[in-house]
Design brief:
2 domains; 24% helix; eight-stranded antiparallel β-sheet; 6 helices; 19 strands
Length: 309
C-alpha cells in the first residue's frame, strides 16, 4: 500500500513538473524569442533631416544637426548655425547602420549603470521627415582579443541591453565643434607655384617654385624644411572656433598668406589681431573664424629662416 501511494505521489509530482517545463518552453520561451530584437536601427538615411546627440563630451548637452536644402548645419547658441561637411554626416550614418545586435547582454534595468546605458551613455535621436524613428543610448565599450571592439547599447524605450560590434564612442561621443568644418587649408601642394607672406613693416617675403625647387629672393630653400612646412600647411585644420563676431567685422589683416596654384586659383589665409587674440580666416572656409594659438600661427605665418638652409 505504501509503495503504491509512493508511486502515485511520484507520478503526480512528475506530471506537475512536466507541465511546468512545457509551459516555460512553449510560452515563456516563445516570449523571450519574440522580444529578442534582430534589428535595432531601421533608418532610411536619405530621409533623415534631424539628428539630436547628447554626448558626454558636451556634458550631455544637446548637439543639434539639421538638414536644410540638402546641406547639414549644426546649431551654435540660440540664433547661429554652422556648416557640417557631408563627409562627417556620411561617417555618422555609416556607423549608425553597423549597429546590429550580436548578443543580448542583459534584461535587468539594474544592470544599465554597469553597461553605461543609463544617463551616463551617449543618447542619439534620429528624425525622418520630422518624425522620430530612432532613440538609442550608446554605452561603454568592451575590448576582446584579438582586436575586437564592442559597444553596449539600449533602445531608449526598452529595458534590454545588447552588445554590438564597433567602438561607437569615437563617432558619437563628440563635441559640437567636431562636427563643424575645421579646415583652414586643404589642397595639393604639388600644384603650388608661389607663397606670398605679407607682414607688418618690411618683414614680408615670397617663396617661388622653379623646376620643383623653392626659392626666396633667388636663394634656394632647404628642401627638407620646406617639404615639412608645405606638408603641414596643405592639410591644416583647427578646432578652436571663435564665434563672438562675424567675418564682416574683421577689417584689415595683420598677417596674410596667399598661395597661388598652377591652375590660376589661389588660397588666402588672413590673421587679424583683436584684443590680444589672433583670429584666422581662410578663403577655403568662408564661414569659420579660428582663434589661433602659437602652434597654429607658426604653421602659417613663418619667418623665412624656417625654410632657408
Amino acid at each position: 500500500m505504501f509503495n503504491k501511494l509512493s508511486t502515485k505521489a511520484l507520478a503526480a509530482v512528475f506530471g506537475l513538473l512536466l507541465i511546468a517545463v512545457l509551459y516555460l518552453f512553449l510560452f515563456d520561451g516563445n516570449k523571450n524569442e519574440r522580444t529578442f530584437r534582430n534589428e535595432l536601427v531601421l533608418v532610411d538615411t536619405s530621409k533623415v533631416d534631424e539628428i539630436y546627440l547628447y554626448p558626454k563630451a558636451e556634458n550631455y548637452n544637446e548637439v543639434y544637426l539639421k538638414k536644410i536644402n540638402d546641406e547639414w548645419k549644426v546649431k551654435i547658441g540660440e540664433d547661429k548655425s554652422a556648416e557640417v561637411p557631408n563627409s562627417k554626416i556620411k561617417n555618422l550614418f555609416a556607423q549608425l547602420l553597423t549597429i546590429k545586435p550580436k548578443r543580448l547582454a542583459s534584461r535587468d534595468e539594474l544592470k544599465w549603470k554597469d553597461y553605461q546605458v543609463d544617463s551616463t551613455g551617449t543618447r542619439v535621436k534620429i528624425f525622418e521627415d520630422g518624425e522620430q524613428t530612432l532613440d538609442i543610448v550608446l554605452g561603454r565599450f568592451s575590448f576582446q582579443q584579438p582586436r575586437s571592439m564592442s559597444t553596449f547599447v539600449r533602445l531608449a524605450e526598452d529595458t534590454d541591453v545588447y552588445e554590438v560590434d564597433g567602438f561607437l564612442d569615437m563617432t558619437f561621443n563628440q563635441s559640437l565643434n567636431s562636427f563643424r568644418n575645421n579646415s583652414i587649408v586643404s589642397d595639393n601642394k604639388n600644384n603650388w607655384q608661389s607663397l606670398t607672406f605679407i607682414y607688418p613693416a618690411d618683414s614680408s617675403f615670397r617663396m617661388e617654385k622653379r623646376e620643383n625647387k623653392w626659392f626666396i629672393n633667388n636663394i634656394e630653400t632647404d628642401s627638407t624644411k620646406t617639404e615639412q612646412f608645405l606638408n603641414k600647411l596643405s592639410r591644416l585644420s583647427h578646432q578652436n572656433f571663435y564665434d563672438s563676431i562675424n567675418k564682416d567685422q574683421l577689417l584689415t589683416p595683420t598677417y596674410s598668406l596667399k598661395i597661388d596654384n598652377s591652375d590660376t586659383s589661389s588660397i588666402t589665409v588672413n590673421g587679424y589681431k583683436l584684443n590680444n587674440k589672433l583670429l584666422i580666416t581662410s578663403s577655403q572656409n568662408h564661414e569659420s573664424i579660428f582663434e589661433s594659438d602659437n602652434n597654429l600661427k607658426q604653421n602659417i605665418f613663418i619667418n623665412s629662416e624656417k625654410v632657408l638652409k
